[in-house]
């Protein structure tokens, strides 16, 4: 049990006075400052409801420095997240060659998601997390739809997003297997393979097809964007991340360059293997035609330069704890994938708060305090869970909605342009 020595804190009157003054100043500022005009931006470092406004990054990620703190063989998830949250000055570095400017003259940062069926509140949640975090002057999300809404503007969850952000930031696109696979001789013979093997997994396939054709970054529909992706996106490398503690890829997050060596190699190998794009096959494809076999010790040095396998915390901060591989103390201190849907507190969710029954979840659950440092949060399926307003996902949803309707800034202190 943590024991806080209250007496020693109270004795430190200077600290108390300073804290009280900061709180008073913050309150006065909130009460007397004008409501922000649209498009106004709070300066980085501002404390907004107790949380620190982040500055937009202006460089690329130094993978070596990040992995020194984030390799799970020698670090804990919480140490990795703390490094990612606090040490941007150290790991965001100047790019060796110029990266795209964020304006309409340069190609946008392009994201993709594939969805089968009607658009639900969960897919809308992901789309909103994209709007809340990415720089909207230079970001676009392609939503690839199969057997989905014919009138997206009438969809209860996506209608407003369609009217407000399509086509500038979100493009809803109909997935057409034939048109896509006929577009590149790489897929020659696909019709025969598909008719012989009815089990080809579409969602595993689509991400490679669209990334090879258009380039960009694929995010599964159950992955929330938490931070500006540009430092990763513009780093010049193709990447994905690790499947929990296994040495396999999880392609729920996948960055590939259009028609690149890596994407062509994976696709051509998959074509030789019944169009099997299952994540556990990808490593074998990258090792094909090399002298290294998949069970030898130095496979990493062969697959990483082709498709960098980031560690789990960057995109999936709860996974190792969920799988009982690390006994993490996280913020929020959840235990398993189900917990983000729970409208009530999880025991010990806020280890620094003595008695949770003196609070209600909305007092303590704040969107900007959700796994700070991580670039994404992968919630792993759970498509049919109810989005209670007081569960963590509900808290995120409300933050997104109030940002989109112009009444609250995002984590970068920006207010959305009112239209
Ligand atoms: C992709 O690259 C290959 C060789 O690297 C080239 O032959 C092919 O024409 C390219 N395809 C497209 C669609 O640019
Ligand atoms: C790579 O290996 C496969 C067999 O795994 C073979 O069919 C293919 O022709 C090889 N490709 C190259 C470029 O050597
Ligand atoms: C926590 O607070 C509640 C309500 O204030 C009280 O009933 C309960 O006894 C407290 N529990 C502990 C462990 O202090
Ligand atoms: C939620 O996801 C977790 C992890 O995949 C799974 O164990 C659990 O059964 C799911 N719960 C529901 C209600 O879908
Ligand atoms: C903005 O959205 C929030 C959350 O849904 C809602 O509570 C609030 O009333 C909305 N405000 C306006 C001005 O539409």
UniProtKB/TrEMBL annotation:
Top-rank taxon, per record: Eukaryota
**Segments traversing the membrane:** 12-32
List the keywords (alphabetical).
Membrane, Transmembrane, Transmembrane helix
Q: Which InterPro entries match?
A: GlycoTrfase_DXD_sugar-bd_CS, Nucleotide-diphossugar_trans
**Family of this protein:** Belongs to the glycosyltransferase 32 family.
Q: What is this protein called?
A: SnoRNA binding protein
Give the source lineage, highest ranks first. Answer: Eukaryota, Fungi, Fungi incertae sedis, Mucoromycota, Glomeromycotina
